[in-house]
Amino acid sequence: QPIVDKNLEERRKSVGKALAIIEEELPALCRELKAQMIRDCVSKLMMRVEDIRKEEVAKALNMLGEINEKERQVIENLTGAIVKKLFMPLVENLRKAALNGDIKAVESTAKLLGLEELRLLEWSGANE
User: Fold this and answer.
1) What pTM, to 2 d.p., does this model score?
2) Given this model, what pLDDT does residue 114 score?
3) From CA 40, how far away is CA 5, in angstroms rounded?
4) Using CA atoms, how far apart are residues 52 and 55, in angstroms rounded to an integer?
5) DSSP assignments along the chain, one per residue
6) How far apart, in whole angstroms, are the C-alpha atoms of residue 99 and residue 64?
7) For 76-87, how does the pLDDT look when each residue is reduced to its tens digit (9 = 90+)?
8) Integer CA distances (angstroms), 23 to 4, 9, 37, in order
């Protein structure tokens, strides 16, 4: 019986240590999950924006007919700069919201931008 009691006590101590490690590491894991969610959201958003930009540039170039490479590059650069200036503040605000635990803001933004396929974590720990 003393051996069994000793083993049981050692297991209890091990469980306590494991719980302490989990408690210590959980906030870092939650922060990393939030960061990953926002990276996914931003990536999908920017891919969609870039696809739209390319489609619209192609339409415009088609309407213009023959233009030289320099003119085509000016149009590409112009549209790229417009997209960047419009979306960089949004991207920064999304990052801040996610890192501050405002997952609802990130989810709402994703929905407003047509990124419903992006499933953010519904686990309550992601909001801690």
Assistant:
1) 0.66
2) 76
3) 50
4) 5
5) -HHHHHHHHHHHHHHHHHHHHHHHHHHHHHHHHHHHHHHHHHHHHHHHHHHHHHHHHHHHHHHH-S--HHHHHHHHHHHHHHHHHHHHHHHHHHHHHHHTT-HHHHHHHHHHTT-TT------GGGG-
6) 45
7) 999 999 999 998
8) 28, 21, 22
